[in-house]
Design brief:
A hairpin with a 2-residue loop joins strand 10 and strand 11 (135-142). It is built from eight helices and 47 strands. The protein is mainly β. The strands form ten sheets. Strands 2-3-11-10-12-15-16-20-19-18 form a ten-stranded mixed β-sheet, with no helix packed on it. A ten-stranded mixed β-sheet has the order 7-8-9-5-4-21-22-14-13-17, with no helix packed on it. The chain is 13% helix and 51% strand.
Length: 763
């Protein structure tokens, strides 16, 4: 009788708890209703002779759409943003024209709801997309046969008003995105008309019909610094068709997807994977150390160097482990409300099993009551809190959860560990030969020893460069994966340096020489008429036997001793400058004046380009040089000895390829040359030294200016006769003016290129 009453009471409690769970359980939080609802999808044939077909998507508001072609032109995808499909036939399987069928699906994305039409095409076709009010119309026409150079992608065209003007072309990559993150935003003054195709050179080409291009937008934009699929954006204008052409150079052959939003075209391309760059050296997991009970594991990853990370897998064994999941934000169960007082633990577990749609089995030693009040809490988090409150743990396998005290679960775990340890000790050993191709086997031996078990061993055969490993099968697989990950081609770097020297010189020298003589005497018939001095003779006193005086006398090439009063000539001679002489005299040669003007001006430009280059392995020193040895004589107690001094062009570099494909290097560049214009007392030339030594990081294939020297020497010289040279205007007869301007510039460029980039980094 008591058992019947007890069973009746339990049934009543369960019924009350079940009703309360139905009342208190919360529904999932859904997003607000989408403003655009797709009501119907219609397909009609517009021309039976050609197979032209029109697809009309009927909505409630103006659509924002995205159209792209997949599967080599066999499928057309139409995505309508912020829209859901209500009451629309999910699949249309009847063939109409070039359309073999249409599948309509509505689903949620990170940005909200979206409706996708997957249109199967029986043949390749060109398509036109036009928005009319709240409807979207897609016109399909069978495409003509195209040559292989055009590629398999059909040409897409969208009708829009003509006579528009391009206002902006810009690149953007939103921070929070998963796919199609690299976008080119094209805005115009009105809804554009465009066609999308691929050029013979492989570029994606967008032609904006009847669209004017401002001069400031006709440009080429370099996007290589963004490390995405897009490389350059080229905007130009075609005068024949009066259209604006936008071409994109990118990785691969993807045309991207086009979306029209008002007067803007959004040209989207798939972005690279998160946290990776093109040909980035990948992180490879080569070893997993798992506990015998299937609990957490430790993974060792290779990413240029070793690092250890902990990854949790398998079933949750304790309530504390579920708390770890909560810290990582992994409670994803349906949210519920609970308000119970002194409820039996078994009934609460049955309630949570019903809400979570899982099977819960409790052990015999699980008992107690719980008072709980929760609002808007995931059911799996509620289960975790209840188990913690009662000192219980759980073991989950699929949708089956077993609940038991923590002590019981710990004992079971220890028994499994002991059984697994015993099984491990009885596992037979295997011997495996692992060949090494690029690295040295003895270098990898030290790395592989860390993955051996206490029973394992590893040796090296130097003749064949093979590792001989002996261990259980699982550890041998880990060692082999480690060797395959490390035994790759060493990156080879071609380093090219360019040393550019530019020198310009300007010299100007203007001088004057003049002199003469005058005689007053009885012999010449012009005495002074006084007793003293009765005879007077005046002549230039600056005699110069080394000066070429040609031009002073029309009859003599050189005057033996030209009597210059002012002797300030310019440095002229064969191949340099010029001179002009004047000779004036009286009939009786009583008065004679000789004048010689000399001037020289020189200008020159010299450009020297030196380009040493060398190929070397990663992390290896390399050197290349070219030059001459200059002998120098030295006098010592042992006699005259000859030593040689190097004057050479040299490039010394040690490159290191980083994980993202850049090149870090220590570089030293010398350019020495003898200078025979400046010599020692014995005639030995001096050596002009130019040297640069630095550490830098340069992207693969890019050029960096690592240094430069610019010098300028200017001079102005004035030679004159005191007092007379300061006389205005007439002072030039007593002056020599010289001016010089010498400029020298040295710039050093460096360009590293990874020769085997794909083989060494693209694992």
């Amino acid at each position: 009788m008591q058992r019947r009453m007890r069973g009746s009471i339990q049934k009543r409690v369960l019924s009350v708890l079940g009703a309360q769970a139905i009342v208190l359980s919360a529904t999932l939080s859904w997003a607000d209703g989408a403003p655009n609802h797709v009501r119907d999808v219609k397909i009609r044939a517009t021309d039976t002779s050609t197979g032209a077909t029109e697809i009309e998507v009927v909505g409630t508001t103006a659509p924002v759409f995205n159209v792209r072609v997949e599967s080599g032109g066999k499928r057309l995808l139409v995505d309508i943003a912020n829209a859901d499909a209500q009451g629309v036939k999910e699949a249309i399987t009847s063939q109409v024209g070039v359309v073999g069928g249409v599948l309509t699906q509505g689903f949620k994305t990170e940005a909200g709801t979206m409706t996708r039409l997957s249109v199967s095409l029986v043949k390749q076709a060109t398509y036109r997309v036009r928005a009319e009010g709240t409807s979207l119309k897609v016109m399909l026409t069978p495409a003509a046969a195209t040559g292989p150079s055009q590629g398999p992608d059909p040409v897409a065209k969208v009708d829009a008003p003509a006579a528009v003007e391009l206002t902006d072309v810009r690149f953007e990559r939103p921070k929070a995105c998963t796919t199609s993150c690299d976008r080119v935003l094209i805005t115009t003054s009105a809804a554009p008309s465009y066609s999308l195709s691929t050029t013979a050179g492989g570029r994606a080409r967008l032609e904006l019909k009847k669209t004017q291009l401002p001069k400031e937008l006709a440009r080429t934009t370099d996007l290589t610094a963004h490390h995405g699929p897009l490389k350059t954006i080229i905007t130009s204008y075609d005068e024949k068709t009066e259209s604006t052409i936008i071409e994109i150079d990118r990785e691969g052959m993807a045309q991207g997807s086009i979306a029209v939003d008002g007067n803007a075209i959004i040209w989207a391309f798939d972005a690279p994977k998160a946290g990776a760059k093109p040909l980035l050296r990948k992180s490879v997991t080569v070893a997993r150390e798992r506990t015998e009970d299937g609990g957490p594991k430790i993974e060792t990853s290779i990413h240029g160097e070793d690092n250890v990370k902990v990854e949790v897998q398998g079933a949750s064994e304790t309530a504390g482990f579920a708390a770890t999941l909560n810290a990582q934000g992994r409670f994803t169960g349906r949210r519920i409300d609970l308000d119970l007082k002194d409820a039996d633990i078994h009934n609460i577990l049955r309630l949570l099993a019903d809400v979570g749609r899982v099977n819960i089995v409790t052990a015999d030693d699980v008992s107690g009551n719980v008072t709980i009040r929760m609002r808007n809490v995931p059911w799996d988090q509620a289960l975790d809190v209840v188990l913690q409150a009662k000192g219980l743990g759980m073991v989950r396998s699929g949708n089956l959860i077993r609940v038991a005290p923590l002590a019981t679960l710990q004992k079971e775990r220890e028994l499994r560990l002991a059984a697994a340890r015993q099984e491990y000790e009885l596992t037979p050993l295997e011997t495996r030969l692992i060949p090494v191709s690029y690295a040295q086997a003895d270098e990898l031996q030290a790395r592989a020893k860390d993955l051996l078990s206490p029973r394992g061993s590893i040796a090296v055969d130097e003749r064949t460069n093979v590792l001989i490993a002996r261990d259980i099968s699982g550890n041998l697989n880990n060692i082999e994966e480690l060797v395959r990950s490390l035994d790759t081609q060493t990156p080879q770097v071609l380093v090219e340096a360019r040393i550019v020297e530019a020198t310009s010189r300007y010299l100007r020298d203007i001088g004057i020489q003049w002199g003469g003589d005058a005689t007053f005497s009885e012999a010449t018939g012009n005495p002074t008429g006084i007793a003293f001095p009765s005879r007077v003779s005046v002549a230039g006193g600056n005699y110069d036997q080394n000066t070429n005086s040609r031009g002073l006398s029309p009859f003599l090439g050189n005057v033996a001793q030209p009597n210059f009063a002012v002797n300030l000539p310019a440095a002229t001679g064969t191949g340099q400058g010029g001179a002009l002489g004047f000779s004036l005299g009286s009939v009786d040669n009583n008065f004679n004046i000789g004048l010689r003007l000399s001037a020289a001006e020189a200008s020159g430009l010299l450009r020297i380009v030196s380009s040493p280059r060398i190929l070397t392995l990663d992390n290896r020193d390399a050197r290349i040089s070219q030059g001459t040895l200059i002998p120098f004589s030295q006098i010592s107690a042992q006699g005259v000895q000859t030593t040689f001094q190097e004057a050479k062009l040299q490039l010394l570099v040690k490159p290191h390829v980083t994980a993202d494909g850049s090149v870090a290097m220590h570089v030293k560049i010398n350019r020495d040359e003898p200078d025979f214009n400046q010599t020692s007392a014995r005639g030995d030339p001096t050596i002009l030294k130019r040297e640069a030594e630095t550490d830098l990081l340069v992207m693969d294939g890019h050029t960096a200016v690592i240094g430069g020297i610019y010098t300028r020497n200017t001079g102005r010289n004035l030679d004159q006769i005191p007092f007379f040279g300061d006389i205005p205007i007439l002072g030039v007869l007593f002056q020599r003016r010289r001016a010089s301007d010498t400029r020298n510039e040295l710039v050093i460029f460096l360009t590293p290129r990874i020769v085997n980039r794909a083989e060494a980094l693209g694992r």
